[in-house]
Amino acid sequence: PLPQFARIDQAQSIGELTYRALMVRLEKRFDSRYMYLISYTLAKGDGNVVATGPFTSVVTHPENPSLDEGPATNDRRHALVASGSVLLPYDVSLGGVWTVRSTMPFSAIAGTDLNGDALVTDYVPGTSRSMGIRDNARMLEAVNAWRAVNRLGPIAASQIDDNSYNSVDMRVSKAFPLGGNRRVELIAQVFNVFGTDNLQAAWTMNALSNSFGRI
After folding, report:
1. Neighbour-count burial for 131-158, b at 16+ CB within 10 Å, e otherwise
2. What is the 8-class DSSP label of residue 68?
3. Which of 3, 50, 57, 211 is the most exposed place for a label (fewest CB within 10 A)?
4. In which band, very low, low, confident or very high, does the pLDDT at 51 lie, cut at 50, 70 and 90?
5. C-beta of residue 204 within 8 angstroms of C-beta of residue 214
6. More confident residue, 128 or 79
7. DSSP for 22-58, written as a single string
8. How far is CA 64 from CA 16, 95, 146, in A?
9. How crowded is the C-beta side of 168, counted as CA atoms within 13 Å?
10. 63-105 residue pLDDT tens
11. Any idea of the CA torsion for 139, 156, 201, 98, to the nearest 10 degrees?
12. CA 152/CA 127 separation, integer angstroms
């Protein structure tokens, strides 16, 4: 209640991040002019760290720190990488890599200081950390109720972007001998062959913005 203090911060080592994963791999080594490697990872990252800088984080609601428990911001549940190469006639090597990753989660921020700590980091009432993508229906219900209180229209489910990743990269090469142990190799590469839009983890998290949920 002292007016000269807007906020008193206490630093404690109470942050936790937990990562669990299962990785399986199928590999065929080079034989009969071709090879391939397929890797799949099923992962889960949880924690209570809401980063505000490279080495700092804050408790969003000191009176209810459990709201900060949830999927980590870099949590990607599924990842698949398939690569291979084949040696074509005239010793031309053709290779490719296909990478697929599922989307990361995000949080719904109220857009105003709800608990008087001078930080606009409070979650929308009725939500907790990283509900976006993981539980869109319940998050949007709370977000739209909050927007209605602030006399704003609802956000449609179709507006929520995801940042799943899907890219195919190709490479073709051929080596030409120059005599002795010397050779020159010509390489051509094409990245993201199909031009897939792969978005960064940069959601508009302010629930009072009409762009909420967009990247």
Report:
1. bbbbbbeebbebbbebbeeeebeebeee
2. G
3. 3
4. low
5. yes
6. 79
7. EEEEEEEEEETTEEEEEEEEEEEEEE---BSSSS-B-
8. 16, 52, 19
9. 8
10. 788 888 889 888 999 999 999 999 999 999 999 999 999 999 9
11. 110
12. 18
Interatomic CA distance for residues 168 and 170, integer angstroms: 7
CA distance 212 to 215: 9
CA distances (Å), origin 148, targets 47, 164, 207: 31, 30, 11
Residue identified by tokens 């990283």 is 130
DSSP run (H or E) holding 184: strand 182-190
Q: What is the per-residue pLDDT across 63-73, written as a single tens digit (0 to 9) for each?
A: 788 888 889 88
Phi, psi of 80 (to 5 degrees): -130, 130
Q: How many residues does the chain have?
A: 215
Q: Please give the Cα distance from 140 to 98 (Å, whole number).
A: 33
The torsion of the CA quartet 103, 72, 201, 198, rounded to 10 degrees, works out to -30
Place of tokens 């890797």: 39
Rounded CA-CA distance 131/138 in Å is 8
Give me 62's structure tokens: 């000191």
Cα 51–Cα 54–Cα 56 angle in degrees, nearest 5: 50
Q: Give 165's pLDDT tier (boundaries 50, 70, 90).
A: very high
Q: Are 101 and 76 in contact (CB under 8 A)?
A: yes
Beta-bridge partners for 177: 183
